[in-house]
């Protein structure tokens, strides 16, 4: 090691010692450092204490909450005990759904309340193509009200039932009391059936039910869901039906809000829409209560049609252990099916089948219109449907059958019209037209014309009775087609559903008046019906020229088909198809009858009759023409007297 290295090392050591001495803390800095370290230790101690206090506070709060919940539970238990008495044990529970199912129905029963809450018809779909629902839990509410021995009204919807003996086709929903008493709702769903059996069994309920009011009160409310494409007719043909014992079924108004106070023994009620129904039938009739039907406007509720409400009191004594039998019907408004349902329900409830008459759930018209549909149209339609699957062909055959049935009356009417046309060729008729050319002479001309018809053996009203006899059939079919479930969903040609309108053209924009009349669509079968009807009216006007002289008659003959176009545009396409076929066949019949008539022979007979007049009999029998002429003469004489009186009054 040389001298320079040693000197350098010594200097570095001295510099390091000098720097250490120079940078050592002052007493004040040493005191500040000690104080800082003491503060850190104090903060750690405080944090530890805070954590300990927080843990203790949480433990204390938990103990207080537990004590508070215990107090609340005790209060709630006391209230439940006071409210439900021996039924308090059933006031708490967990809600679940039990499903019964067969080939046709799916029925959901809730453990909360023990009642049916939803029903599906598995063989049908709604207008959206989904499995058809009669109602869902949100749309249906049904429960019984019990008057307890403690003077409280208790509803089963607030109590929980236990499902027992559950299978796919049956279940017992049991409501058990604290002391072992039981209330059972037993549901059974037979295979391939629309009927759900509903039995009510009670055991040892004397300590629960008030002896002054041992009966049950049922509340059943339902929002009727929309299931069809055409809302207008679903509203029109939806009704709340009911039947009193030994009376024919009746229904509340289907066009306005309505209600009915139960004032007798009511056997069944039915919540009905255009093609499907939910009905409750009881062996022990309801003897008090209220029925209400409330119409829902589309702007108010687009998904539902009506709101049905039923409050019924059954004289069912729960203090004994008898089985109280009821039954539900959930299914289509099929006329022939409901006849079988009558027999099935009557056998189950040990009732007379004639006491039910569930076929009234199908709206087929009133009075003679209903008779024609029940005893003529429906049997023929059902017979044809038993071996023909295409309902377009069935309607064609039904039309031919009805036209054949009324052909004798049609023939008489058409022959009378042809005679009126031939009558116009008589020289005497031309002479009368020349004698009374002015409109002011219309009364005198008509009187003279009727007198001439009488002498010629022609009756202008000769076809009135045939037309009157055909009208009930036409009107009956007006009721039959929109409610025939056989047509629902059946397609033919361009119509995808013969029970609804067959829109060939639709639009979304609102057009004043047009949209209100046509509901933003044009039905093709209805359009074809209108065209053929106008053509038929044209032929009939030529067939009976005397109608051209009647004021406004020609105008009305062409306006009426257009009016019916606006009315029937929303109706069943099956109905428009039938009217189209019927009118087309009438045109063919008119042409055939016209071609088969010997006009020269008829004209010769009229001329002979003018030489040897014979009284013509009208549609009501007797010398109707002569009496009509006499009435016209009296009217004309009265008019002359009034004119003379006015003239004398004017002179004075």
Low-confidence stretches: 618-622
The total count of strands amounts to 20
Average the pLDDT over all residues and give the rounded result. 77
**CA radius of gyration:** 44 Å
Percent strand equals: 15-25%
Tell me, briefly, the overall form. elongated
Q: Find the structural class using helix and strand composition.
A: alpha+beta
Specify the number of helices. 16
Distance between the first and last residues' Cα: 173 Å
Kindly report the oligomeric state of this protein.
single chain
Helix content: 40-55%
Description of the structure:
The chain is α+β, with helices and mostly antiparallel strands and 652 residues long. Helices cover 46% and strands 21% of the residues. The protein contains 16 helices and 20 strands. The strands form three sheets. Strands 5, 6, 7, 8, 9, 10, 11, 12, 13, 14, 15, 16, 17 and 18 form a 14-stranded antiparallel β-sheet that branches. A four-stranded antiparallel β-sheet has the order 1-2-3-4, with no helix packed on it. A two-stranded antiparallel ribbon has the order 19-20. Strand 8 and strand 9 form a beta hairpin. Helix 5 crosses helix 6. The longest helix has 58 residues. The radius of gyration is 44 Å and the shape is elongated. The N and C termini lie far apart (173 Å).
């Amino acid at each position: 090691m040389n001298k320079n290295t040693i000197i350098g090392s010594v200097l570095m050591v001295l510099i390091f010692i000098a720097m250490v001495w120079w940078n050592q803390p002052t007493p004040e800095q040493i005191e500040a450092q000690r104080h800082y370290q003491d503060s850190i230790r104090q903060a750690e101690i405080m944090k530890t204490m805070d954590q300990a206090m927080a843990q203790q506070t949480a433990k204390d709060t938990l103990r207080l909450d537990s004590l508070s919940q215990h107090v609340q539970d005790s209060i709630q238990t006391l209230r439940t005990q006071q409210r439900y008495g021996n039924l308090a044990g059933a006031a708490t529970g967990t809600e679940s759904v039990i499903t019964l199912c067969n080939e046709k129905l799916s029925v959901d029963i809730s453990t909360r309340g023990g009642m049916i809450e939803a029903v599906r018809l598995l063989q049908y779909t709604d207008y959206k193509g989904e499995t058809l629902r009669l109602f869902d839990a949100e749309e249906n509410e049904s429960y019984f009200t019990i008057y307890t021995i403690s003077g409280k009204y208790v509803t089963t919807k607030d109590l929980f039932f236990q499902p027992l003996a559950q299978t796919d086709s049956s279940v017992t929903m049991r409501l058990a009391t604290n002391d072992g008493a039981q209330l059972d709702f037993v549901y059974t769903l037979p295979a391939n059936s629309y009927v759900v059996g509903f039995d009510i069994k009670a055991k040892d309920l004397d300590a629960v039910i008030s002896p002054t009011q041992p009966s049950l009160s049922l509340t059943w409310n339902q929002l009727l869901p929309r299931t069809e494409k055409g809302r207008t007719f679903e509203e029109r043909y939806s009704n709340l039906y009911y039947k009193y014992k030994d009376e024919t079924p009746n229904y509340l108004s289907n066009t306005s809000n309505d209600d009915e106070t139960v004032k007798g023994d009511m056997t069944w009620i039915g919540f009905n829409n255009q093609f499907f129904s939910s009905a409750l039938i009881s062996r022990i009739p309801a003897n008090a209560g209220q029925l209400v039907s409330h119409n829902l406007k589309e702007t108010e509720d687009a998904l539902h049609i009506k709101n049905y409400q039923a409050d019924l009191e059954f004289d069912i004594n729960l203090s004994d252990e008898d089985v109280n039998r009821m039954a539900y019907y959930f299914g289509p408004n099929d006329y022939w099916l409901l006849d079988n349902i009558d027999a099935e329900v009557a056998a189950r409830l040990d009732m007379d089948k004639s006491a039910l008459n569930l076929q009234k759930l199908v709206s087929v018209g009133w009075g003679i219109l209903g008779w024609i549909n029940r005893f003529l149209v429906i049997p023929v339609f059902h017979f044809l449907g038993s071996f023909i699957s295409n309902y377009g062909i069935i309607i064609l055959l039904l039309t031919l059958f009805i036209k054949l049935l009324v052909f004798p009356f049609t023939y008489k009417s058409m022959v009378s019209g042809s005679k009126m046309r031939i009558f116009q060729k008589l020289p005497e008729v031309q002479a009368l037209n020349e004698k009374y050319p002015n409109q002011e002479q219309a009364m005198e001309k008509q009187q003279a014309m009727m007198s001439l018809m009488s002498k010629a053996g022609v009756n202008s009203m000769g076809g009135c009775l045939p037309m009157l006899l055909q009208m009930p059939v036409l009107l009956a079919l007006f009721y039959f087609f929109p409610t025939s479930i056989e047509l629902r969903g059946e397609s033919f040609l361009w119509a995808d559903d013969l029970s609804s309108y067959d829109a060939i053209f639709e639009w979304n924009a609102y057009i004043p008046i047009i949209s209100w009349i046509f509901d933003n669509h044009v039905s093709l079968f209805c359009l074809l019906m209108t065209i053929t009807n106008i053509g038929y009216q044209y032929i009939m006007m030529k067939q009976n020229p005397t109608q051209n002289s009647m004021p406004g008659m020609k105008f009305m003959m062409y306006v009426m088909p257009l009016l019916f176009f606006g009315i029937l545009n929303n109706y069943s396409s099956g109905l428009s198809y039938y009217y189209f076929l019927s009118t087309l066949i009438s045109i063919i019949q008119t042409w055939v009858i016209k071609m088969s008539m010997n006009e020269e022979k008829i004209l010769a007979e009229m001329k002979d009759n003018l030489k040897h007049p014979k009284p013509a009999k009208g549609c009501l029998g007797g010398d109707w023409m002569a009496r009509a002429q006499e009435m016209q003469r009296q009217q004309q004489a009265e008019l002359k007297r009034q004119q003379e009186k006015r003239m004398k009054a004017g002179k004075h």
